[in-house]
Amino acid sequence: MKSLTTIAISGIAITFLALPTLxxxxxxxxxxxxxxxxESILRIDTPDQDRFVKVNxxxxxxxxxxxxxxLPNLDILxxxxxxxxxxxxxxxxxxxxxxxxxxxxxxxxxDVNAEEGLLGLTIDPKYAINKYVYLFYSPMxxxxxxxxxxxxVNDVLSMSSEKVIxxxxxxxxxxxxxxxxxxxxxxxxxxxxxxxxxxxxxVPNQKFVNKGYAPLxxxxxxxQYDARRSAGNTNDLRGKILRIKVNENGSYSIPEGNLFxxxxxxxxxxxxxxxxxxxxxSVDQKNGYLYWGEVGPDANNDDELRGPRGYDxxxxxxxxxxxxxxxxxxxxxxxxxxxxxxxxxxxxxDAAKPVNNSPNNTGLTxxxxxxxxxxxxxxxxxxxxxxxxxxxxxxxxxxxxxTQANSAYPTYYNGKLIIYEWVRGWVKAVTMNxxxxxxxxEPIMSNLSFAAPIDMEQGPDGKIYVLEYGKGxxxxxxxxxxxxxxxxxxxxxxxINALEIEKPSGLLPYKMIAKVDARDADGGKLTYIWNLxxxxxxxxxxxxxxxxxxxxxxxxxxxxxxDNANAxxxxxxxxxxxxxxxxxxxxxIAGNKSFYFPEKAVNYQVLVSDKNTTVNKxxxxxxxxxxxxxxxxxxxxxxxxxxxxMIGKSLMMKSDCSTCHKVSETSIGPAFNKISxxxxxxxxxxxxxxxxxxxxSSGVWGEVPMPAHASMKxxxxxxxxxxxxxxxxxNNTPASLPNKGTITPPKTINKNKSVLTLKASYxxxxxxxxxxxxxxxxxxxxxxxxxxxxxxELSGFNRNDDGSLTLAKPEGWIKLRTIDLTDVxxxxxxxxxxxxxxxxEIEIRxxxxxxxxxxxxxxxxxxxxxxxxxxxxxxxxxxxxxxxxEKKGKLDVKSIMLNAK
Length: 901
What we know:
Elements: H1 35-42, E1 52-59, E2 65-70, E3 76-80, E4 84-88, E5 95-100, E6 118-123, H2 127-130, E7 132-137, E8 144-153, E9 156-169, E10 179-184, E11 190-194, E12 240-246, E13 252-253, E14 270-273, E15 278-283, E16 290-294, E17 312-317, E18 321-322, E19 328-329, E20 333-334, E21 336-339, E22 344-348, E23 375-377, E24 395-400, E25 417-421, E26 427-432, E27 438-443, E28 453-458, E29 464-468, E30 481-487, E31 495-501, E32 505-506, E33 510-519, E34 527-531, E35 537-540, E36 544-549, E37 553-562, E38 568-570, E39 574-578, E40 584-590, E41 595-596, E42 602-609, E43 620-626, H3 638-654, H4 657-660, H5 672-679, H6 685-695, H7 714-726, E44 740-743, E45 755-763, E46 774-783, E47 785-787, E48 794-795, E49 797-799, E50 805-807, E51 811-820, E52 824-833, E53 840-846, E54 853-858, E55 863-865, E56 874-883, E57 891-900
Parallel strand pairs: 14-18, 32-39, 41-46
Antiparallel strand pairs: 1-30, 2-3, 3-4, 4-5, 6-7, 7-8, 8-9, 10-11, 11-12, 12-13, 12-14, 15-16, 16-17, 17-23, 19-20, 21-22, 24-25, 25-26, 26-27, 28-29, 29-30, 31-33, 33-36, 34-35, 34-37, 37-38, 37-39, 40-42, 42-44, 43-45, 45-46, 47-57, 48-51, 49-50, 50-57, 51-56, 52-55, 52-57, 53-54, 53-56
Helix pairs in contact: 3-7, 6-7
C-alpha cells in the first residue's frame, strides 16, 4: 500500500492465471504475447515459498483494526474503526492507545450495521521531519467523512494540532461502503478512497427489489438505494478516489491531471470516479500508477432483466478516469436500466457514452467513458483469472515491489504488484510488462496463513507488514494482529502449521494436553519449548505435552519450536482455563440435517449443560438468519452483539454490582435500566460509566456513594456497562428465540440468502479468579435448491459462462458430497435441452458410482422419485447421466432440487 521511500522492496506476490481479453483503451493495454510464452517466463527460478516466514509481532490486542502505517523507526500506527489510534513499539513489543477520536461507528437502528468510524491512516512522506499523521474518519455529531492532519509529539497524537483538510457529506443510519484508504504517491500527492455510501440490500416490503445487482432505485425517499447519486455523480465525492496536494498550512490544492477541471458540475478533487467500495489502495512508488481493490456486488448469476452477476475488481489507473459503477462492472459488463415500480427493464448502458439520468444526480448527465477492470472475478470460478479460486470475495491491493540483489525479497519479484483477499486469504504477485500491462499472476507466500488481512504495507526496511483484522466481524478478535513477512536465504526456521489444545478448560485438577504440528524445511531435528503460563516452561523432543494444573486461573499456552541450528518459530498463544469449564451448547435438529425446504417447519432444540452448576436459561441466546453476501457489514450481527452483552451480564452477577443495583428496581443504587435510559443518547456513555465504576462516584443518583473498583479490569467493566446500556435499547436488540421451537422458511428463497443459520450461545458466571466462559454453536442448513455454481465435483461436464453445466461426453456424473436424505422423496433437475429428441438415462446412487440404486429412468420431466433413505446418516450421492442417442444434442444442468414429503 503506502510506502515511506521510493524504493519498494517487500514481498507478498500475487498473480492472476489466464491472459484475459485484450483491452484497447489507453488505461490498460494487454501485450500481444501468447499465454504460453507469458507462463513459461514465470516458471523460471520461482523462489521457494517455504522461505517466506510469517513473524507475528502482536496478536489479540486490536479491536477492528482498519489501516496501519509503518514509521521510519519500525514502530507501527494502527487505526481502529471505533476511533482508537494504537501504537506498536518495535523495541518493547508493546501496544498502547495514543489517541481516541469521537467517531460514528454504529447506527441506532435494528439490523442496520454502520461501516463508518476511523477508516484511513497514513503518514507524511517527510514524517521523519514533520511528524504529520493523516486520518480519515467519521466524526460524531456531523454527517460527514473527514480528512485531517495531526502531529505526533513524543509518541502521542496531539489532538489540538488537528487541521481539517477536507470533509464531505455522508448519509448515516444506513449501510454500506465507506472506502477510506489513504496513500501518498511518489510525487507527494495524497490519494483518498471513498465508498458509494449506498445500500446493496433489498428495500423491505417491496415487490421489485435489487437482488444484489446495481442499486439504481431512484424512487422518492429511497436515496440510499441509488448509487447514481454518489459513485455516478460527478458533483459528489462519494464513490471516488480523490487526489490532492496538501499544503503546509493544512489547506489543499488541485494537481494537474485530475478528471475534472473547475466546473459547477464536476468536483476537481476527483481522480477516479465510478467506485463502489475501493477499500484498499496503493500507489506505485516508481511510476505513480494507482491500484485499488474494488469490493463488488453480491448477485450470483447474470440476469436478463438486470444485467451481469457481481464481480470484485483489482484496478489500475495510469491517468484519471471513470471506472463505471453503478452502470458497469468487471470487463465493462453493462447493467440495464430498471423500473422498480413495475419490474420492467430498459436498454443496457453504453460504456462509450454512459448517461446518468437519475433525479438524484446533481452532476453531469453525460459521463466520461467507462474503463474496464484490470482484473475481475465472481463468486464462482473465473474463466479469465482461474488462480483466484472461488467463494466469498473482498479484493485488496498491496505495494508494487522493486527489488535488487541486497533487498529483503528476491529480485524475481521486481516490478510485481501484490494483491490479496480479505475473505479467501490468498496473496498473489501480478506480473506486468514495462508499460504496466497485465501478463500473469502467481501465488506468493502460499504457505503462510493470514486471518483476514485488511492492510498490507511496505516498511522502510523493505519488508511487508500485514495487518490482520481477524476472523470475526465487528469484534475484538484473538487472531487480529500485525505480522511481518521475512524471506530467509539460509537456514530456515521451523514451520508451525497448528497448535491445538485438546480441551481448553476444565475443573481442578485440570489436565491440559497440547499438540503442535510443525516441520523443519531443512530436515533437521526439532525441540519444543512449551510456555505453560505464569513463567513455567518445559522442553520436550516430541510435539506434545501434558500438564496438570491444580490452581485455578487463566494460563497462556504457546510453544517455540527450535531446529538444530537454533532457529526458532513461536506459535500463536491459546488461553486455557483451570477451575472452570466451557459450557456445552448443542443444537438438535429433527428431520433433515443438510437442507431446509420452503414452508416446511424446521424443528430445533437447544440443550445447554454447565458442569457443577445450574444452567440459567436467561443467559441462553438463540437466533436464526439467512446468509446475505459478503459486504463487511452484510452479515446479521444481532446474535454477536447480544452474546457479548450476555458476557457483561455474567461479569456483573459475579461482581458486587448486584449488591447495590437491581435490573428494574431501585436498591441502594439506581436500577440498571434507569441508568441505561439516562445515558442512552450519550455517545461517550460507555467510557464515562466505566470510569465511574473504576474510580467511584457520588452525588449523581443520591447521597450513597458508589465505591471504587480499582482492581477490576477496564475491559471487563466496559462489558458490564455494555450490558447495562443494552437494557433500554431493546428495540434495537433482537429477542432470543425459544430454547425449543420451529423456524418456517419462506415459500420463495432469495438466491443471495441461501443458508439458514441457527446460532445458540451461553455464558456462565466464571469461577474464582477466572472470567466467565461462553460457548457459541451454529447449525447451517442449505437451501434445497442447489445451483450449478455450487456443483464442483463432476465428470463429463463443462462449465458455461453463466455457471450452468453442459454434458460434453456420452456419459457423466455429478457428486453431492456428504448430505442427509432424510425425508427426501425425489430429485428434480432443471435443464435446458437443445435437442428435445435426445433421451438421457439418469441413475441416482448412494455412496459411490456403483452404490445402492435409488432411482433410474429417462429424463422425462426431470423429476426422479428415490427409494427412501431412513438411516439418518450423511452420504455421498452420485447422479449419473447417460445419453441414449447418437445425435449430438446438448444437456445443460442449471440446478438440482431436493423435494421433501
